[in-house]
Amino acid sequence: MNLVTVIVPAYNSGRTIERCIKSLLEQTYKEKEIIIVDDGSSDNTPVICKRYEGIPGFKYFKSVHGGVSKVRNLGLEKATGKYVMFVDADDYAKDTFLEKMVDALEGGDCDMCICNYLRVVYNDCYPIKSLQKRGIVTRNKYLIDTLRDPGHHYFGVIWNKIFKTEIIRNNSIRFRNDITLGEDFVFTLDYLRYASKVNVIDDKLIYYCYQSVNTLSRVQEKKISDCEKEMANRNLIYETYVDVMKRVGLFEKYKKKINRYWIVFYLRQKYDLMAKYKWSLEDKKLWMKEILSNDNVKNSLRLFKKSEITMQYAYYIVTQTTKNVIKAVIKTAKGVV
User: How far is CA 330 from each of CA 124, 129, 220, 327, 336, rounded to the nearest angstrom?
Assistant: First the structure.
């Protein structure tokens, strides 16, 4: 039985960290190392974590606040396991999470394994439909699958995956501090450069907790500077995506699908400007002008017919309207204002 290191970044996670820790300690897979890296919390996170320091395999480190990439990289430096996994302090895992992921990785002689998850909204669980068919796939097939929706949590996060520590260390793979949105996806892409096979399992093994947050108000409160930061992040993510696709020989064949990444961004911003952002008309015009001046957006728009973009926008409006209705129903049922 090989040792698995689970790295948990924590920042002011006093409300949820204990649930997360307990779910990892109660795993059926016993050869585990749990590393909590505290990103300079000012709440009771340290107090909770220190209660568990005497437990074999449990390690707690406190760092000066520097962001999730920094503390995950610190966790990687401290890791001693043959395999490494990541769990967020807000989330928690089923007791078979580690066991099933290791079995899938080793049983299929793969370099990475990905599982499905459950989304928790106001304490209710909602299954997420898998974006892939179950089974072992080549690295290139996995990358092609990401083109369905590269921004989706399923592909974009790291907490539903298991990696080989040897591949990470031999190739100096780290989380990039210059990316603050989408750093998980970039890490996975960098890892896949050196991978051969991926095992896809449909087991829903982790609870992604998305609750007690008014997402709509967060969007409405966004400033142009926030959106500019997001676009800058997307530029960096796209550069990595293109570089990896070129390296494995997929870029030319799937160029249009890869550039759909920017079409989705453009349409989402167009919708948010119309329906969500509470900005002045002048600011809205300035932001749209800035989007359309982005070279990646311009190049992507040239690859798609106007009718294709119109159809995608219509589809996006329908899906957003449906999501908003569902959110409203859930909030009403839960008595959330």
Answer: 9, 19, 20, 5, 8
